[in-house]
Write a structure and sequence with these properties.
Structural class: alpha/beta
Helix content: 25-40%
Oligomer: single chain
CATH topology of the domain at 10-88 and 153-234: Rossmann fold
Shape: globular
CATH superfamily of the domain at 10-88 and 153-234: P-loop containing nucleotide triphosphate hydrolases
Number of strands: 9
CATH class of the domain at 10-88 and 153-234: Alpha Beta
Length: 240
């Protein structure tokens, strides 16, 4: 079980990201704290992936600022991210995880036990010897999650983790997320699946055109969204 770490809260203060003259995130101000998963929703192009990259520390804001923890700088090695289309290394599932453990500087004598633990955590204990690139899409996504967990993060970012998975694969991944959360790891994830958001979220953040439309506890949001755009989005309407 993790204890509260130096990366939380993650505070956005009027943070904008502009690329090639296009505003991708527009003066975002909010704070991500401990607790149940924070789930980002919004139409394509709303800025969800850029939000995750900024929160992870992979990019810097064009203006404004972002800080991690009470001292502002946090620890990058305690954050991990899984992208929508993870790349599998040309090696076995177990060797993919071992590669991540090497990158995290885990002592070699501890690695086999950790490989076994991580594969079991994501439901791949029986597939350690299988070539990663021959695994199903759902299995590859769970393997990518095992690699991300190799660094023992306290904050985990997930970008559309169940996109393109069938219902069984999506539910299997959701079960792993619940296990991760039970270990006191803060999860921040983007999804297009409103059902998934209802099942997993403690907090909802709605993005549209790079702006945060609203944030609220999930139960409150789905019962009574505050903005007309959010109401239209969850009713299935396209947002211009």
């Amino acid at each position: 079980m993790h204890t509260p770490d130096s990366n939380l809260p993650i505070a956005f203060e009027q943070a904008s990201v502009i690329a090639n003259g296009v505003t991708i995130l527009d003066r975002v101000s909010l704070s991500l704290g401990h607790g149940a998963p924070t789930v980002l929703i919004g139409p394509n192009g709303s800025g969800k992936t850029t939000f995750l990259k900024l929160a992870m520390g992979l990019i810097t804001p064009s203006s404004g600022r972002i800080s991690w923890g009470t001292h502002g700088n946090g620890r990058l090695e305690q954050r991990a991210i899984v992208f929508q289309h993870p790349t599998m290394l040309r090696r076995s599932a177990a060797s993919n995880v071992r590669y991540a453990l090497n990158a995290a500087r885990i002592p070699r004598k501890q690695q086999q036990a950790r490989v076994d633990e991580l594969l079991a955590l994501v439901g791949l204990a029986a597939l350690g010897d299988r070539p990663a690139r021959r695994m199903s899409g759902g299995e590859q996504k769970r393997l990518a999650l095992a690699r991300a967990l190799a660094r023992d993060p306290t904050v985990l970012f997930l970008d559309e983790p169940t996109a393109s998975l069938d219902p069984a694969g999506a539910r299997a991944f959701e079960d792993v997320i619940r296990t991760v959360v039970s270990r006191n790891i803060k999860v921040v994830m983007a999804t297009h699946d409103l059902g998934e958001a209802k099942r997993l979220a403690g907090e909802i953040v709605v993005l549209h055109r790079g702006r945060v439309l609203e944030t609220s506890p999930a139960a409150v949001f789905f019962d009574s969204p505050k903005t007309s755009e959010a109401k239209r989005f969850i009713s299935g309407e396209l947002l211009a």
